[in-house]
Design a protein that fits this description.
84 residues, alpha+beta, 19% helix
């Protein structure tokens, strides 16, 4: 799950209370920064969260950090990064 794996700045100090279902800052760049670590563990593939634009508001079930509440199949989820 992209949001829960690694932050762009490699920090680990943010508190992650998974019970409230918010975004916690994991990004595509955070994953890229950890590719050597992933490879050293013996993995040859990764499965990231869906990349599409998600529902933006918080719901009774939390936010769309998991990537499965798509609202735009052609847009990118800005919480994970940009196309640049």
């Amino acid at each position: 799950m992209t949001d829960r794996f690694a932050r762009t700045d490699n920090s680990t100090s943010v508190t992650c209370n998974t019970q409230i279902g918010h975004y916690y800052g994991g990004t595509w760049q955070g994953i890229i920064n950890q590719l050597d670590y992933i490879q050293e563990m013996g993995f040859t593939a990764i499965w990231i969260s869906p990349v599409t634009t998600q529902l933006t508001q918080s719901t009774a079930d939390g936010e769309a950090y998991h990537g499965y509440w798509q609202t735009d199949l052609y847009g990118l989820n800005p919480n994970f990064g940009t196309q640049a």
